[in-house]
Amino acid sequence: MIRKLLHRVFKRKSSVSTSISNDSGIRPHIIPLKQHGISRNHLSPCALKVTIDLQQAGYSAFVVGGAVRDLLLGIEPKDYDVATNATPEDVRAVFRRSRIIGRRFRLVHVMCGAETVEVSTFRGNSSIEESDGSSADKHADEHGRLLRDNVFGSQEEDAVRRDFTINALFYDPSNEEIWDYLKGYDDIKAKRLRIIGDPLLRYREDPVRMLRAVRLAAKLAMQIDDASAAPIGDLAPLLRNVPPSRLFDEMLKLLLSGQALACVVDLRARGLHHGLLPMLDVILEQPLGERFVVLALKNADERVRQEKPVSPAFLFAALLWHEVLAQWNILRTAGGKPMLALQQAMDEVVAVQNKELAIPRRYDAIMQEIWAMQPRFLGRGGRRPFRLLEHPRFRAAYDFMHLRCESGEMDPELGHWWETFQRVGASEREAMLLKDEAPKKRRKRRRQPESAADVETSSASSDADTVIT
Ligand code: ATP
Ligand code: MG
Asked: Is the pLDDT of residue 277 over 70?
């Protein structure tokens, strides 16, 4: 019996090939529990339930993608995906708490308690099938970018249309087997990130895969294999054709991966940062800016490691800060009033950035508040520090100012002052106020402010928030 099984497995293994085929020519290599060691108890309860329920309803269903990969690497999966031959409507009929999402490709979200599992129907890849021949592919743009990948397919096709071999493993909890069509298991063991199929074609189809390669290699401590890495530099400009909102999503994943600094350094080394993040083009070349950005990224990585939340708005505010500063300086030198110039600089930087990578509006507003509050840290007399302390965004703005002190952009004494000011009681706070920064008399407020500190002084008796935002 075991012999027979081994024989079958061996036969299957020998027919595994990385060549792309749209028939069912690829046979999976089946890896038993004894070899891979992932029992069904490792799965989240929802992933297990969804897979088993689908199977009991007569469909085939597997946990697939990042979760299988992470389990094999000893990492706790963030979320679970299930792949099945059931259509979205079939899946919807099996689970009461489920809803169909997505217009272009319809998926089903199945909810169990607080957990949600994403269920997708096996999909083929129309571009791969057709780009073998010389005929033009109507599902791709002129650069080869896939515009449509919404055709149902077989399980093999579903494996082949995925991005990397390590992301194309299927786990069947009922018999605890892993089905491997593309030698992804060997790649996991060798810590090798290998794109499925022809690298050139696959990056052209979806340039975001280049960013995913960088992120996954850093997150999983893997090497991108030579053939998969080679075309990246040349194809980097294709990222310009990707919708900005998609770039934002991928960039956010990268920045919150816990390996943001390593990723950004690698993006730069591979020439992927140009056009993607204009701030990186400029900033990483400037010693001061570099320190600031590096500190911000290190901070974010440390927080992810400590499982503390990281605010995307804070991170993007940090990444763009030196662009804002540079623009602010230009506008002030040209005679602009400091706070108006700051507002204009912020608007301009956000507008330029959004052409490349669309930062959602909800983050825009927070970023702008963090930036606009920076000059207010200079005002340490009168009631201004008290008002600043009460601002709902004080904590983020303070952390940001602290980063500026750490990077050498601001006098560290200012950071210490604010750190102490928050900590001590009411009478000590009064004693800390700088007398020479007390609010000026009313008539003095009329003069044109010279610096950001003057702005603080001059707006002391008004509500500085309304001046700034
Ligand atoms: P993580 O969730 O840790 O970021 P992941 O690999 O699970 O990594 P998801 O974005 O959740 O990433 O994608 C789930 C699966 O979908 C992947 O494992 C892969 O099989 C497939 N996939 C994701 N993005 C692409 C892509 N651009 N091209 C082809 N397949 C993709
Ligand atoms: Mg995932």
From this structure: no
Q: Is 253 in the pocket of ligand 1 (CB under 6 A)?
A: yes
Does the pLDDT at position 464 exceed 80?
no
Q: What is the pLDDT of residues 313-325, one digit of tens each?
A: 999 999 889 889 9
For the CA of 202, the nearest atom of ligand 1: 28
66 lines ligand 1 (CB under 6 A): yes
Establish whether residue 207 lines the binding site of ligand 1, counting it when its CB lies within 6 angstroms of any ligand atom.
Answer: no
Ligand 1 near 163 CB (within 6 A): yes
What pLDDT score does 300 carry?
94
Q: Whose CA is nearest to atom 1 of ligand 1?
A: 66
Ligand 2: distance of its center to the CA of 337 in Å? 48
Residue 167 Cβ < 6 Å to ligand 1: yes
Cα-based angle 29, 54, 124 (whole degrees, multiple of 5): 55
Q: Where in the chain is the domain with CATH 1.10.3090.10?
A: 312-464
Of 191, 189, 173, the C-alpha closest to 84 is 173
Please check the confidence at residue 24 and state whether its pLDDT lies above 90.
Answer: no
On average, the pLDDT of the chain sits at 83
* Ligand 1 within 6 A of CB of 123: no
Domain 312-464 coded CATH 1.10.3090.10:
yes
Pocket test for ligand 1, best of 167, 169, 204, 251 (most atoms within 8 A of CB): 167
| Ligand 2 centre distance from Cα of residue 14 (Å) | 30
Task: Say whether pLDDT at 19 is over 80.
Answer: no
Exactly one of 163, 187, 198, 225 is catalytic; which is it?
A: 163
pLDDT at residue 430 in the model: 94
What is the DSSP secondary-structure string of 300-369? HHHHHHTT----HHHHHHHHHHHHHHHHHHHHHHTT--HHHHHHHHHHHHHHHHHHHS---HHHHHHHHH
Q: Where in the chain is the domain with CATH 3.30.460.10?
A: 1-127+139-190
Between 133-137, 160-164, 185-189, 335-339, the lowest mean confidence (pLDDT) is in 133-137
What's the fold here for domain 1-127+139-190?
A: Beta Polymerase; domain 2 (3.30.460)
Helix axes 260-269, 244-255, angle to 10 degrees: 130
Separation between Cα atoms, residue 288 and residue 181, nearest integer Å: 49
User: 266 catalytic, yes or no?
Assistant: no
| pTM of this structure | 0.80
Q: Which of 162, 202, 235 has most ligand 1 atoms within 8 Å of its beta carbon, as the pocket-test mutant?
A: 162
The tens digit of pLDDT for each residue in 115-161 reads 999 999 999 875 544 333 333 345 666 776 666 556 789 999 999 99
Task: Report the alpha-carbon angle 465-468-469, nearest 5.
Answer: 80
